[in-house]
Design goal:
265 residues, alpha/beta, Rossmann fold, 2 domains, seven-stranded mixed beta sheet, 7 strands, 39% helix
């Protein structure tokens, strides 16, 4: 029996046609309709993937997921990024780049973990201001990402900042490579990001939204590359619907965490 997550992704995937790019598929490439051509991209080389994630989809393109200089404008009918955006250094840059690669009316399938239902629950939601600072920063990705790594160490690993265990964990991650959620969101945060992009020349139209639930820790947006002047979303009530759902999802996430603790004692 398919999971809720698999069913939701399949509903979105049925709308993908033509030639597309999936970023960071690893061991879970999205099943797509027959005769659809998919290219794969990953931060790791094929050799690194074979060593670290045997059986992963082999990348046709090696990229940091934010920049694809070898790909021309309007190259793809769709781009898929499942649980990718939270890992990148500059999410605004990534979304602009994915938009650039899409043909007119091309689709971006974007799924993200809802922080309330994951190990990120105690972390503060990433604000638009934080993303703007990341986007404007001249610091290297390593410098910017260290801030996120330290936040992970405190809130996910539960290590006291400045303690010997905290410093050892940070040093070990830096020495051996790491992959953490640099940013954490709920659906309304992504809508705010899309509104900022729309005001600044990167136009998407929201075709579908699937909120998180106690049965799946992820939410999903299906976005269409739009023209200037198009409405970001057809329903003026989208933000209100997401807002109204939040108290119930907040409560569900708390109950789920409590039950998990009780069952693992």
């Amino acid at each position: 029996m398919k999971s809720v997550r698999a069913k939701r992704r399949a509903e979105f995937a049925r709308l993908l046609r033509g030639e597309g790019l999936e970023i960071g598929a690893l061991l879970d490439p999205l099943p797509v309709p027959y005769a659809t051509r998919v290219w794969y991209s990953d931060l790791l080389t094929p050799e690194q993937l074979d060593e670290m994630y045997p059986g992963s989809a082999k990348p046709d393109i090696v990229s940091d997921s934010e920049s694809f200089p070898s790909i021309a404008d309007h190259s793809f009918d769709f781009v898929v990024a499942n649980h990718v955006l939270e890992h990148v250094t500059d999410p605004l840059r990534a979304l602009m780049e994915w938009h650039r690669m899409l043909r007119p009316d091309g689709l971006l399938m974007l799924t993200l973990p809802d922080k309330r239902f994951t190990f990120d629950a105690t972390r503060k939601r990433t604000t638009l201001e934080h993303l703007l600072d990341d986007h404007a920063s001249a610091a290297s990705p390593a410098v910017r990402n260290r801030v996120h790594l330290e936040e992970w160490a405190e809130h996910v690993e539960r290590l006291r900042p400045g303690s010997p265990a905290y410093r050892r964990w940070i040093d070990d991650q830096l020495a051996h490579g790491y992959a953490v959620h640099n940013h954490v969101w709920i659906p309304r945060d992504i809508l705010e990001v899309l509104e900022w992009l729309d005001r600044n020349g990167t136009h998407f139209a929201v075709e579908r939204v699937a909120n998180a639930s106690p049965l799946t820790n992820e939410f999903a947006f299906l976005l269409r590359r739009a023209e200037a002047g198009e409405r970001l979303h057809k329903s003026r009530g989208l933000r209100a619907r997401l807002l109204l759902a939040d108290p119930w999802l907040d409560l569900a996430a708390i109950v789920k965490r409590v039950l998990r603790r009780l069952l693992t004692r």
